[in-house]
Design goal:
Elements: H1 13-29, E1 58-63, E2 69-71, E3 74-76, H2 81-89, E4 121-127, H3 132-158, H4 162-169, H5 176-192, E5 197-202
Helix pairs in contact: 2-3, 3-5, 4-5
Length: 206
C-alpha cells in the first residue's frame, strides 16, 4: 500500500480573523498622546501699518530669563498679575474727559490706565530663556483675569458664568436652539472684554 507523503495544509483563515480582531481591539483601547499647548489663535499676515494706540491702553508684562515678572517696569510676583490685569482692563476711563469710556466697567476711572476694555491691549514679552512652566503660569493668570471679568458680566446679564456658558455650548448634549442662544450671549460678553493679547519673545537684560 502506497504511503501518502503529502504535508497537510494548515487553515490560516481563522488566524487572520483573530489577528484582525486583535488589531481592532488595540486601535480602540490604545491611548493616543496629544501635544499639550495653549489655545491661541495666531494673527493673520497683514502688511497694513498698525493703528496708533495710546500708551495708557497698553499693559506691559515682561518675563526675563531668570523667570522674574515685570509689570509696567515694576518687579512683581505671579500672584499680583491677575489683580493688576483686572484693574487695567476694568479701569473704565476718565469719564470727565473721555467720551469713549466704559459704562459697565467698575474700575477707578484713572487717566493712567485703559479707556475701555475694547481698546485695552496686554503686551507680553517673554525671554527665550524663560522656562515654559513660568510662561504658562503667566498665561493662566492673564486668562483668569479675563474670565473673572467675563463671568461678572455674564452673571449680571444672564445669571450664569461665562465659563459655564462656554462649557454648555461645546457640550454635544446641548440642544441646537440652546446653542444658538448661548453663541449670541458668548459673543456679547467676548465683545465687552475681548482678549487683546499681544506676544513677543525677546532677549531682555532686566
Amino acid at each position: 500500500m502506497a504511503r501518502n507523503n503529502e504535508i497537510p495544509e494548515v487553515n490560516a483563515g481563522s488566524m487572520a480573523d483573530i489577528a484582525f480582531l486583535l488589531l481592532i481591539f488595540f486601535l480602540v483601547t490604545a491611548t493616543i498622546q496629544t501635544d499639550v499647548g495653549l489655545d491661541r489663535k495666531l494673527p493673520p499676515e497683514d502688511t497694513t501699518p498698525p493703528l496708533p494706540v495710546n500708551e495708557r491702553n497698553i499693559f506691559r508684562v515682561s518675563l526675563n530669563k531668570n523667570n522674574e515678572l515685570w509689570i509696567e517696569n515694576d518687579l512683581k510676583q505671579i500672584e499680583d498679575l491677575k489683580s493688576a490685569a483686572i484693574a487695567f482692563l476694568d479701569n473704565g476711563g476718565d469719564t470727565s474727559v473721555d467720551k469713549n469710556h466704559c459704562n459697565y466697567c467698575q474700575g477707578n476711572g484713572s487717566s493712567d490706565a485703559s479707556d475701555n476694555p475694547k481698546e485695552a491691549i496686554i503686551s507680553l514679552a517673554s525671554d527665550r530663556e524663560a522656562t515654559y512652566g513660568m510662561y504658562v503660569m503667566v498665561q493662566n493668570e492673564l486668562t483668569a483675569a479675563y474670565n473673572e471679568l467675563r463671568n461678572r458680566e455674564a452673571q449680571r446679564l444672564f445669571n450664569r458664568d461665562f465659563t459655564e456658558m462656554e462649557d454648555a455650548y461645546y457640550d454635544s448634549k446641548t440642544q441646537a436652539k440652546e446653542k444658538a442662544e448661548l453663541k449670541k450671549n458668548i459673543y456679547q460678553i467676548r465683545n465687552m472684554y475681548p482678549m487683546n493679547l499681544s506676544e513677543a519673545k525677546t532677549n531682555m537684560n532686566q
